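Hi R.,

Here's the chain you asked about this morning:
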Amino acid sequence: MKSETSTPTGEFTLRLSSTRRGARLARLLAVQQLHDWGVTGSPAEAAELVVAELAANAVRHGRVPGRHGRVPGRDFEVRMERGEEHVRIELSDARGERRPAPVGRPDEGGYGLLLVAALATAWGVKDRCVGKTVWATVPLTPR
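And the predicted structure, written out as tokens:
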């Protein structure tokens, strides 16, 4: 029997449909990847919450409107990179003009980026050829 050697790359990328199901799947697959990397406890929980919030935002605000409302099937991308001291999480979507900003006193919802800011050591937005990437850096040691 031939044994296989698996070398972790420290990088995880996937593309998912811009739906609530896609956002839920992003969170579940990110949790599995964190587990595979040996990230557990409060750092894993913090990263899970960040992925969940950024994926929900990508689905809610990142889909491109079509002729008759929103176009189903527009994807978003999840990327995670494990470093020595942190996990970098990136969510990319097609709506570059819809840049996120936390609000101080939201009427309905809007607390998600405040949560991201509280859990991450840094977060931001960068442009892409098409759309944008929202990123956050989550520490691997509890703060």
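Residues 99 and 133 are 9 Å apart (CA to CA).

Let me know if you need anything else.
M.
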